[in-house]
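User: Could you check the structure of this?
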Amino acid sequence: MSASAVLDPHAQEALRRSWRIKIFTSTWLAYFGLYFCRKAFYIVKGSMGDELNLDASALGEIGSAYLLCYSIGQFTSAGLGEKVGARVLLLTGILFSIIANVAFGFANNYWTLMAFMCVNGFAQATGWPSVVGTMGSWTKRKERGVLMGIWGTCYQVGGIGAKAWAAFWMARQGWRGSFFAASMVVVLVWL
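Assistant: Sure, the predicted structure tokens are below.
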């Protein structure tokens, strides 16, 4: 006999409520965290470009490569999530985003940045389908508007926090340190 069959209806509802809070919190933190590996490049690109002798055109190409891979990844991630599951897809995407951002901190040329920016674009694209699909599975239809409205603060707060964090560390540790500090935040979220 399963544990859920033994629980009375009140205990089952309490257990479900506990899991819904965990799911809300973990998906909120996951999407919040992804912004730390998404926004650092745009904060540090001026200093990085100066040090690596990359002009505005080269930096624009690197940023555009990210957006192209992110767009393609949005289409492929939804289908991939159906096959491997949202949790596995999200955790894998976060891991590859961390790896890409650590690589940015060690990068010394256009091609290294370009390659890892593409990896980051595909990795970042795993976030939205995974967290929204998960939230949809754990919320009742009648409450989705309110809950998703509250949950949606993760990308505003994440964007603001990520930019401030990147700028703070760039001022103290340079652009490379900014990438490492952003990656550390996401490692904590990932764990």
